[in-house]
Amino acid sequence: MTDHEFAVWAPLPQRVRLDVDGTAHPMTRDEDGWWRATVDAAPQARYGFLLDDDPAVLPDPRSARQPDGVHERSQLWSPPSDGWTDAGWQGRSIEGAVIYELHIGTFTPGGTFDSAIEKLDYLVDLGVDFVEVMPVNAFSGTHGWGYDGVLWYAVHEPYGGPDGLVRFVDACHARGLGVLIDAVFNHLGPSGNYLPKFGPYLSSGSNPWGESINIADAGADEVRRYILDCALRWMRDFHADGLRLDAVHALVDTTAVHILEELSAETDSLATELGRPLSLVAESDMNDPRLITPRDQGGLGMTAQWDDDIHHAIHSAVSGERQGYYGDFGAVATLADTLRHGYFHAGTFSTFRGRRHGRPLDTATIPATRLLAYTLTHDQVGNRAIGDRPSQNLTTGQLAVKAALALGSPYTAMLFMGEEWASSSPFQFFSSHPEPELARATAEGRKREFAEHGWDADEIPDPQDPATFERSKLHWDEKDGGDHARLLGFYRDLITLRRSESDMADPWLDHLRVDYDEDARWLVMHRGGLSIACNLGAEPVDVPVAGDVVLAWDEPTVGNETARLGGHSVAVLRRTG
Predict the structure, then answer these.
(1) Tens of pLDDT, residues 367-385
(2) Do 2-58 and 513-574 share a fold?
(3) Which of 129, 157, 246, 462 is catalytic?
(4) Which of these, 61, 295, 421, 482, has the minimum number of CB atoms within 10 Å of its CB?
């Protein structure tokens, strides 16, 4: 037993008591609404707080560990002093890297940090630079996507808790892999959110996922500190190399210093302190270049951002899908325009939104590596009605074309787990809310949402059915056979080409040239002396480019001035003329 100082920000209740292993202790409040007490506690003591006369013991809003779930007492935890072997890790920026997004629960059959470690050598062999893990903060239930977290400082226990995360990050660094952690600061989940009992954590506004976080109203200073401290903790205590920040467009900040700018500044300070680069990658649908503009140039200073326009342009041009937000995409000309300019909607009318959207990117000052290009993310498959992947609807050649456009582009590239071998597993929306009413509402709401868009409600997977979760797990045995193995080899070769060719490292969009023919449905992306020629159509086509074949899905017939590509195929040529 040692003295331990407990503290909690709770300006709303008139009395707060500390419960340590079933014994209540008084706490003293200061003028800022913080309550403190120093008591003897075992290193792994269970504790919580009693507010006013309510007999319920609530978990610590800054809990490091929730061994019994988000509704129960917290447990003391400290980063292990001898648990790290990565003292020599120098880190690196994500700009220009290849990132691999994965969900811990479905990446492996075991669904834990430790079982994920067993697959890291595979990722190294693939050529991945960074692993981006979907949210690992504590949420209610045993399995879910993680975006309904309620205790942001704690690590989801079924994955292996905080000790498991330490082992995972350390193992990544030992193999030269950086780690990004997906952090959600725009809303809280519906089960286990006790924060409003402590203080004004929520604002009067709302977003598609519930009540908004209070980052600009009265009492916001401590809420902002709550967010900033949590973000920095992932990088300081868990050695993460950066964060993916979920849906930052839902962070409504009317203060003079936006919370993202504040986070950027404090992240840079921490990077200096740690002696290694730290990256912030924002998910945003605003198409606002100020997000990735340095702070000293009037921007918010994010390292990079997800770029859905690139995804939409590639996917719709290859697949032909035009429903919903794909409505303005699909043309080869639109794909060419997006590849050249980063954003397609840049002050232009968006049919899906019914208004003008976006702002032009200054391609002379902002490198393409500050935008992420991808053909698949958890959102783009999981938010489909039945969670079907492109591999379940497209030919393998079409998947190869999509891969070449993303990995051959000057943008920072990102893959979603299993796409590199055309995984047959869907990635469906799944949850495990323990409350029957919430479980029923989640399932019925999902069916109702897609039924309104013409889907048969009976076809929509029940997110609460454990089979929905199990179906979404990768089948690793399929990657080594047939077209799966062939596509995996093509991905490896593309990533190797991306690393080994100096022309592929040029980050400036002003140097990128894209030729295309709308009717013939071919497109050529020129990267210095290399040309990536794609046939988006099903029939063979002659493309006006020639040279030595460096890499191809189906071997083209190359003449003096043209290359004949088979249907749904791609070739990388080194121009000789």
Answers:
(1) 999 999 999 999 999 989 9
(2) yes
(3) 246
(4) 482
pLDDT at 99 > cutoff 80: yes
Options 3.90.226.10, 3.30.465.10, 2.60.40.10, 3.90.1150.10; which CATH number does 2-58 get? 2.60.40.10
Rounded to the nearest angstrom, the gap between the alpha carbon of residue 239 and the centroid of all alpha carbons in its chain is 18
Distance CA 39, CA 3 (A): 5
Could you please report the per-residue DSSP string of 25-39? EE-EE-TTSEEEEEE
How many angstroms separate the CA atoms of 54 and 569, rounded?
66
Residue list for the binding site for substrate: 244-249, 308-312, 378-383
pLDDT of residue 14: 97
Query: How far is 37 from 203, CA to CA, in rounded Å?
Result: 29
CA 141 to chain centre: 21
Query: Which parts are annotated binding residues?
Result: 244-249, 308-312, 378-383
Residue-level length of the chain: 577
- Enter the pTM of the model: 0.97
The rounded distance, in Å, linking the Cα atoms of 427 and 210 is 23
Burial 274-311 (b: 16+ CB within 10 A, else e): eebbbbbbbbbbbbbbbbbbebeeebbbbbbbbbbbbb
For domain 513-574, give the CATH number. 2.60.40.1180
Q: Where exactly are the structural domains of the chain?
A: 2-58, 513-574
Q: What is the dihedral of CA 452, 458, 462, 467, to 10 degrees?
A: -150
**Is 321 an active-site residue?**
no
Element at 513 (helix H, strand E): strand 513-517
Give the integer Cα–Cα distance in Å for 221 and 219: 6
What sign does the dihedral 63-69-70-74 (CA atoms) show?
Answer: negative
Q: Is residue 5 annotated as part of the catalytic site, yes or no?
A: no
**Which candidate in 283, 285, 420, 501 is catalytic?**
283
Q: Which residues contact 355 (CB under 8 A, 6 or more apart)?
A: 349
pLDDT value for 577: 64
**pLDDT of 1 strictly over 80:** no
